[in-house]
Amino acid sequence: MPLDRETLAGYLSERLARRVAVTDLVSFPRGTSRQTWFVTAREDDSGAVRDLTLRIDHPSGSIDPTPLEQEYFVYERLARSDVPVARVLWWEDEPRWVGRPFYIRERIEGDWRVSHFSDPDPRYDPLRIELAREHLRKLAIVHQVDWQSLGFAARLPAPASEADAAHNYVRILARQLATVSEEPMPLALEACEWLHQHAPVAPRLCLCKGTNGYGEEVFRSGRIVAMSDWEEVSIGDPAADFAFMQGFLQPIKRDGIALWGLPQALDYYRSVSGIAVTAEAVGYYQVIRCVRLIVLSHNSGAAVRRPGGTVRQAWTGTEVLHMARHVVASAMGLVEPCSAERFGELNLTVEDTEAAA
Description:
The protein is α+β, with helices and mostly antiparallel strands.
């Protein structure tokens, strides 16, 4: 069934018990795991306007093995915390509307883009550093969430202890690999054994966001007003959240002086959170991240063969899979590392993966 203005107007009118017209429906172009739609609705009687966000799996399915309803659950629970998130409104799994489940949340005023962030001019180095620090401040709030009292352990596999954090993550990956495997994956299985052997002890157990960095959060006036993309949420080592932090860990060096990078980010994070995360632990979780990319790639490859498969899913199921395998194999010492430029496609750095070796 198509997702169109008329269908959504009918749905919202039923939910709100008043006639509603959908005046705008725009697909968010970023992201590959699921579809995000921006909805503008106007109530016929009062003229009140609602700005909403709708999340739904692709017609061919999500590349993420976790269910969409879990994402809704995360938003609902985080609304009871200090983490800035959009308020969820409705979960819908009645197939008569669009044929597959979706949920709707409020849309927070702001943008994932910040002017001049990507401008290489040194004048904007302070802007880049401050936005990275702002992200770390908000991430520190996430890591302070009382995940036990909010019921996250009822939905997410929780480690038995700080020493079990990495092992727990690897066990999750192994189960996902067994579920989504489209072909034998001896390298991935070998990587799980390697990860068990090299597992670090977490400084504490916390809620981890999973997908971080520029493009994942909503900014307004230089501050994060909403944290988005919670499909990779987990309970474990805060170092895991540094394993995928696109844009905010990029080294900034001027006149031979390192102004920003992983060491500076870890120092700043410790100053605002009180939690010590090591570069070695970040490198370890970079490898875990790549094994997870193998999971996502196999899931994406399966989606391509279903009706509604996309070119982006085909790319994820091939190129991303190849790159993730190469990074994992190089971290284990089986092959030479690929070039820094190729690592950049996965938001990794050579230094990160070498730290895990």
